[in-house]
């Protein structure tokens, strides 16, 4: 069994935020007190991989794949709810809960698998940030990559603020990105009737190979291991009476509200990206395959007509820069959770961040020097990062469903049979879709 010290996930954050008792304040005040972890998790649903698939889906099929985005976020809500339940009820994150159930060798294997997944997540942030710096300032990609090492200082600065302020900063960043894309889409005058039709699933998606493959990419990029580990730990950041069943039930209730509200925000941002691609670039002669396609297209009057504007393209690149930088916070926390949970090794977060970033940069720089530092090469890395995440996914979701269905661990909060069955079925479907997507690349 793990010792008591290990059972406290992310010691710097654990139980650091006070919340009202069950007998105090209104629903809104309680929601605000519990709100925050969902924002940190939602950032993971807006990474460069999601950007590419959403923009490409819109440029090729206009609004038809909005239904796939909606389905993906509903599945994400289901899985994040299980992660919340594990953290709130068992007071363990997923890595800790798995570690006490498996032999030492298996722990090491799972740690390696998930470390690779964390680095793959970090890679998408590096790629997004470096490309955004190139689009905004013309900075060579190799310099942009090396500059991402400095985000260690950003993580240090944010952590000095405390988790509550970090949550506020991330939420503000999400709102800024949402406003940017909202402005872009509003100026593009999309067809609202077509958007509503796109939210209705079309059987043609399953029968047309290209639509199916892109749909698999959207679904496969949605559920990522680091979000599950992160949420199971952040759910423990609120301080309340764990021995009071009413307080535990309330913590579960508001943590779910927090998660679902922010995942809806993530869905809206990804939907705005797809709508932007579908409104401005559908039937324009070529599909969007790169961030530069969008950046240049937003400035090209031959493509988007009178809507062409340097401001629109600059806002797009700025939003990419924000999400790339903010994702470094969540990937750092997720990596620390995995290391602490499986190995019981504690490092200061800045050391963890520095190690992760250096290890992430090695394959990027090696590939860059061999193949060349081009945006196409870097965006191809995003695809391979998604493959790594797909491989790690079943090692994350299957144990989580099993653990939250365990009577000894969860007590009266264990999953009912229909939740357990749904969890296993959804996990299997996601895994099969990811395998299909990998073989289609």
Automatic annotation (TrEMBL):
<keyword id="KW-1133">Transmembrane helix</keyword>
<feature type="transmembrane region" description="Helical">
    <location>
        <begin position="302"/>
        <end position="333"/>
    </location>
</feature>
<feature type="transmembrane region" description="Helical">
    <location>
        <begin position="66"/>
        <end position="88"/>
    </location>
</feature>
<keyword id="KW-0813">Transport</keyword>
<dbReference type="GO" id="GO:0034755">
    <property type="term" value="P:iron ion transmembrane transport"/>
</dbReference>
<feature type="transmembrane region" description="Helical">
    <location>
        <begin position="31"/>
        <end position="46"/>
    </location>
</feature>
<feature type="transmembrane region" description="Helical">
    <location>
        <begin position="141"/>
        <end position="161"/>
    </location>
</feature>
<dbReference type="InterPro" id="IPR001046">
    <property type="entry name" value="NRAMP_fam"/>
</dbReference>
<feature type="transmembrane region" description="Helical">
    <location>
        <begin position="168"/>
        <end position="192"/>
    </location>
</feature>
<feature type="transmembrane region" description="Helical">
    <location>
        <begin position="380"/>
        <end position="405"/>
    </location>
</feature>
<feature type="transmembrane region" description="Helical">
    <location>
        <begin position="261"/>
        <end position="282"/>
    </location>
</feature>
<feature type="transmembrane region" description="Helical">
    <location>
        <begin position="108"/>
        <end position="135"/>
    </location>
</feature>
<dbReference type="GO" id="GO:0005384">
    <property type="term" value="F:manganese ion transmembrane transporter activity"/>
</dbReference>
<dbReference type="GO" id="GO:0015086">
    <property type="term" value="F:cadmium ion transmembrane transporter activity"/>
</dbReference>
<feature type="transmembrane region" description="Helical">
    <location>
        <begin position="354"/>
        <end position="374"/>
    </location>
</feature>
<protein>
    <submittedName>
        <fullName>Metal ion transporter, metal ion (Mn2+/Fe2+) transporter (Nramp) family</fullName>
    </submittedName>
</protein>
<keyword id="KW-0812">Transmembrane</keyword>
<feature type="transmembrane region" description="Helical">
    <location>
        <begin position="417"/>
        <end position="439"/>
    </location>
</feature>
<keyword id="KW-0472">Membrane</keyword>
<dbReference type="Pfam" id="PF01566">
    <property type="entry name" value="Nramp"/>
</dbReference>
<dbReference type="GO" id="GO:0005886">
    <property type="term" value="C:plasma membrane"/>
</dbReference>
